[in-house]
Design goal:
Order of helices and strands: EHEHEEHHHHHHHH
Bound molecules: glutathione
Distance between the termini: 43 Å
Number of strands: 4
Number of helices: 10
Helix content: 40-55%
Radius of gyration: 20 Å
Shape: globular
Low-confidence stretches: none
Strand content: 5-15%
């Protein structure tokens, strides 16, 4: 490892060494596919290619919420994309998301398939398609979209900034951890103050804003990402804690969290989801018991 305090950037950056740290093996400075690989297609109108990271969980929670509301057109196949094995760089995946990141959705409902990438765009697409979890009145809709876009702009500081330097970087750099812990706590305070005024982020109703924010900031508030609950003193944010618990209790959130999950308690892992009944019959513990 280079001594970070002594590092002088060269005139031109070149990709000549592994950066170290978790996920270093999948990082590249170029886009595009690395290999030919078609994606599987199941029998439902919606085909999701994902993994149960916070960005992936937003979409599976949304789909489970839509199904719980009775929207049968939201039936979906959720295929696993193992990002640590570079599956996001397969040609079929890149055709759906040129940015090579999960989640990616293909809507095959109509004669011409529609691709959607970026989790916020997927939530908005589904909310508009089914007329759910997005207010129609201008002021309320705008508030909802403001929080949705807040999440999309803010979470990279939490994940790519704080989470990366606190949990994944090969060495602990005080400057970087301080900078991003400061920003993360500020963001937690933004949410806590907002949730002192309203039940949900956009107002009285549960919307795609909550569905986008919860898998990042709710899970952080529960101490479930980056093992950072104590470090960031997340219990202090009382209104955030109230909202986090409220959403964690929703059955669709519990199901959505299980889809495309490959870590943790086997009973909480549904690696691929093709039918609603898979939650009862195909979780990791059931598969292990059959072997
Ligand atoms: N802004 C994107 C971010 C998606 C994203 O960062 N996905 C990560 C997992 S959470 C990923 O696929 N990483 C693989 C890679 O960077 O190669 C979204 O919200 O959809």
């Amino acid at each position: 490892m280079t001594d970070q305090t002594a590092y002088e950037p060269p005139k031109i950056w070149t990709w000549n060494k592994a950066s170290g740290g978790r996920f270093a093996s999948i990082n590249r400075p170029i886009a595009g596919p690395t290999h030919e690989k078609e994606l599987p297609i199941g029998r439902h109108p919606l085909q999701l290619y994902s993994l149960a990271t916070p960005n992936g969980v937003k979409v599976t929670v949304m789909l489970e919420e839509l199904l719980a509301l009775g929207h049968t057109g939201a039936e979906y196949d959720a295929w696993l994309i193992r990002i640590s094995e570079g599956e996001q760089f397969g040609s079929g995946f890149v055709d759906i998301n040129p940015n090579s990141k999960i989640p990616a959705l293909m809507d095959r409902t109509g004669p011409a398939p529609v691709r959607v990438f970026e989790s916020g765009a997927i939530l908005l697409y589904l909310a508009e398609k089914f007329g759910a979890f997005l207010p129609t009145e201008t002021k309320a809709r705008t508030e909802c979209l403001s929080w949705l876009f807040w999440q999309m702009g803010s979470a990279p500081y939490l994940g790519g900034g704080f989470g990366h330097f606190y949990a994944y970087a090969p060495s602990k750099i005080e400057y970087a951890i301080d900078r991003f812990a400061m920003e993360t706590k500020r963001q937690l305070d933004v949410l806590d103050r907002r949730l002192s005024e309203t039940q949900y982020l956009a107002g009285d109703d549960y919307t795609i804003a909550d569905i986008a924010v919860w898998p990042w900031y709710g899970l952080l508030a529960l101490g479930e990402i980056y093992s950072a609950g104590e470090f960031l003193q997340v219990r202090d944010y009382k209104n955030l804690q109230r909202w986090t618990a409220l959403i964690a209790g929703r059955p669709a959130v519990k199901r959505g969290r299980m889809v495309n999950r490959v870590i943790g308690d086997p009973a909480g892992q549904l690696r691929e989801r093709h039918e609603a009944s898979d939650f009862a019959t195909k979780t990791g513990d059931k598969i292990e018991a059959q072997q």
